[in-house]
Amino acid sequence: MTKNYVPLRVNRDFGDIINTYFDFFKRNIKKFTNVFISYNGIFLIGLLVASYLMVSGILGLIEIENNFGIETTNEEDFYIPMAIGGGLFFIIFVMVGALNYGLSTSYMVLYDNDPNESFQKKDVWAYTKSHMGSIILFILLLFVIYIGFLIVSIFFLIIPILGSLAQYVLQFFISAWVGVSFFEMLQNKKPVGAALSEGWNLVKNNFWRSVGVNFVMGLLLFILLMLMMTVPGVLFGIYTFHVVENSVSLTSNVVATVIYTICLTLALIVLIYGQCLTQFVNGILYYTLHEKTYNINTRKRIEQIGEDLNNA
């Protein structure tokens, strides 16, 4: 075991889960970011292309609306690239979601299994690839789960105040359930249905701890992501001010398209990376709840103490 290794299989209380997350984050941010960049490269290029198409279409429609001298241009010339870009973005987003859900979870599974931290990025990819069928099926089921959540949320919003509170509680419960279930699926190689069932039991039996951790960490990660968004946000704001002040043509100016494309792409990359950080939260939660329920690590330590006493 390495000196700064953060053991995951410990029955922690609410505050310890938060502290452990940040310890794990500081310890593994560099190594995981290397994994993230290595296996998201082609998708990041795809996001850049999709962003360019969407930006080109949106800027053209804005310029037509504001009559910057292209009144005769057919709006379909801008709707088409925007639609293609939007469709390409959706496909890439689903693929990236499945990939990074798998990479972040596989990383923690290998970390838990290897206290010496000798695993490499290729091992993370190999573990993810070996479970890709289950990962894709799980992601597809998420669409069904969240459609159901949206339907229920509509009914909650009818109820003043309490309905909104109930909607947020349900949201954080589902986030915990889905994240914990995904870890159960990859950690113990269970079928999707069995993993969702086990995840449901773990989260339900520790309802407020699960909801509370996702609420607090969701808020903290939101603040972190907003700070990361300042780079594309400032760039977007400064150039938009320049466009407005100087009446720059949005469609004929290549610089405008490039800058807005870069801003959108950077924002999307931050959101995708944030998804991985959120899954790490549920990873700490999963190992905590699993240890509380089954005491696997505790029993191993007791057995090890017994063996040491017998050998003494």
Automatic annotation (TrEMBL):
On the tree of life, the source organism's domain of life is Bacteria
The transmembrane segments are 36-59, 79-103, 135-159, 165-183, 215-242, 254-274
Query: What does the UniProt keyword field contain?
Result: Membrane, Transmembrane, Transmembrane helix
State whether keyword Transmembrane applies.
yes
Establish whether keyword S-adenosyl-L-methionine is in the entry: no
The protein's name in its UniProt record: Glycerophosphoryl diester phosphodiesterase membrane domain-containing protein
Taxonomic lineage is: Bacteria, Pseudomonadati, Bacteroidota, Flavobacteriia, Flavobacteriales
